[in-house]
């Protein structure tokens, strides 16, 4: 109201932030063992719950397949997670600013059309994307703020069906982000920049509170946005099993603060009576153990690096195939500016434009046929009908930036199309 300089009385209409079909939970990454396997199991659960497993529904339209988004803080993480999960059989691809424009558009097209079920992405992915069948949104690491998390997680379950929103919260990611944000405050050269840096840090602390408190997740959102307390009942981990969340949080907090606990000193724990050769032998054994660990870790990292390179080659080949398919579609397309489809309208697929064009043509032909029963009308050729349909579709396309607006523009032409 202040920004718009509105004067009272002003009627206010608000939409509650509570979405009853979204289940929120927080997983404490440090206490689950194999994080990637845990994530893989979660993905399988989400995708199978929606369709009682895809193996039992082989004829499903790819456009209606369940899918999910995994948000990561860095490009490297998007690549790493995509590589590991791909090895585990997940239909997945990374999306970030480091890819070439053609590659990004191909990945987005493949995701929107259902040929890729899961995207690992930086936060730039999703703006303008309106895909109803997103069954889960995962944040691999703590989000930057409550509003950002609410918006990004809100891309799940837009069809009204159950969807899951999960944060994998780890002390390493928390400490790294804490250090970066604090450094930004101390390095700020102007008061304005320092104020913004402090604001970012305070939003981060609020997000920490969201993850590390035993409060209903939906209620936390409601408090933040000034809404009434929602009737969550069982729509988050806290309300479903508060005691289990308390236990998990205690374990996590103990791990985070373990330097504050003193159990026993090395002198108390290590006695030469238990080892031949005394303390020197113990030290030598520990050093050898450490070297073995370093060698194993080096081999593990080398194997992962080679596997990542191999997956990159496979992925590049797949992306190139998608690009070629898109180029072939563009070449044979009947709509205008086919090559600009995704660039112009975020999330719009060329196949959707083609489908709408056919629908408009058929509708016009039926209308002409109906009119000819009552009036003698000037003969209209099929080419005339096609050109009119192309004009109508192109007008809707050029005046839209997102898919929802594009479809509304089509509806305004009087064509009774239902998406």
Automatic annotation (TrEMBL):
**EC annotation?**
5.6.2.4
Q: What does the entry give for GO biological process? A: double-strand break repair via homologous recombination
> Pfam families annotated for this entry?
Helicase_C, RecQ_Zn_bind
The protein's annotated catalytic reaction(s) are:
Couples ATP hydrolysis with the unwinding of duplex DNA by translocating in the 3'-5' direction
GO CC annotations on file: chromosome; cytoplasm; nucleus
Locate the Helicase C-terminal domain: which residues?
59-196
InterPro entries in the cross-refs: Helicase_C-like, P-loop_NTPase, RecQ_Zn-bd
Q: State the family named in the UniProt similarity comment for this chain.
A: Belongs to the helicase family. RecQ subfamily.
Any idea what this protein is called?
Answer: DNA 3'-5' helicase
